[in-house]
Amino acid sequence: MYRSNQEVIDILKDTGAIVSDSHFVYVSGKHAPLYVNKDYIFPHIKYISRIAEIIAQKYKDSEVDVVAGPSMGGIILSQWTAYHLGLLKGKEILSVYTEKQLDKNQIFTRGYGQFVKGKNVLVVEDVVTTGGSVKKVIKSVENEGGKVVSACSIVNKDPVNINPSFIGVPFDYLTIVDVDVYEEKDCPLCKAGVPINTELGHGKKYLEEQKNK
């Protein structure tokens, strides 16, 4: 069931980004029957630009100097959001991103940390499942001396648990995609023998890891 911004929902549907009726494994390790393949949105410049514009409009009256996002999807989204926010505010808004490390942390590399020091930062993310990546980017901004004024995602899969209190800063999103998410031991799809999707999500790597156990 989909709620919130109908235009964004239509974009997700038009690009085939919402994939259902399968058995997916998320990067978090959780299982679900539905997957939001944000990678299908990014090739459509018109659509991702419009989504970023909607985000920018939310924060046009906020004090924002820099937009930051986690790699990979957050790179494209942060650039387009910074572009539209700059047009709305009539000034240059910078765009930077963090990169995932071997310990799964998200930190600034390439000297990007210097661009958030002493600045007001908007953190953006494409799809939030557990909120982990957003929180890691926020922590990295703070470690570099920046101030996160807010965070926003295109999709929030778990609005009950992923909220401003959990994220630690004002947090918003464009739409909700309700999906039942399970721990592996509780997954009814596993119990029913539904094959794991190896084309999308973490399924292929998950199966490889299972073989090596």
Question: How would you describe this structure to a colleague?
Answer:
The chain has helices at residues 6-14, 45-58, 73-89, 132-143, 164-167, 188-191, 203-211; strands spanning 2-4, 18-25, 31-36, 66-70, 94-100, 106-108, 120-128, 147-156, 171-177. The chain has 213 residues and is an alpha/beta fold. It has a single domain (2-211), classed as Rossmann fold (3-Layer(aba) Sandwich). The strands form two sheets. Strands 1-9-8-7-4-5-6 form a seven-stranded mixed β-sheet, sandwiched between helices. The protein has a two-stranded antiparallel sheet with strand order 2-3. Helix 2 crosses helix 3 (73-89). The model has no long low-confidence stretch (mean pLDDT 93).
Provide a short characterization of the protein structure.
This protein has 213 residues and is an alpha/beta fold. The protein has helices spanning 6-14, 45-58, 73-89, 132-143, 164-167, 188-191, 203-211, and strands at residues 2-4, 18-25, 31-36, 66-70, 94-100, 106-108, 120-128, 147-156, 171-177.
Write the SSE topology:
Elements (H helix, E strand, L loop, with lengths): L1 E3 L1 H9 L3 E8 L5 E6 L8 H14 L7 E5 L2 H17 L4 E7 L5 E3 L11 E9 L3 H12 L3 E10 L7 H4 L3 E7 L10 H4 L11 H9 L2
Parallel strand pairs: 4-5, 4-7, 7-8, 8-9
Antiparallel strand pairs: 1-9, 2-3, 5-6
Helix pairs in contact: 2-3
> Any idea how many domains?
1
Q: Could you estimate the helical fraction of the residues in percent?
A: 25-40%
> Which series of helices and strands comes N to C?
EHEEHEHEEEHEHEHH
Tell me, briefly, the overall form.
globular
Low-confidence stretches: none
| Largest sheet descriptor | 7 strands, mixed
Radius of gyration, CA atoms, in whole angstroms: 17 Å
Overall CATH architecture: 3-Layer(aba) Sandwich
Number of helices: 7
The CATH top-level class label:
Alpha Beta
Tally of extended strands?
Answer: 9
By CATH, the topology is: Rossmann fold
Classify the secondary structure makeup into a structural class: alpha/beta
Mean pLDDT: 93
Task: Please state roughly what percent of the residues sit in beta strands, choosing from under 5%, 5-15%, 15-25%, 25-35%, 35-45% or over 45%.
Answer: 25-35%
Through-space gap between termini: 37 Å
Oligomer classification: single chain
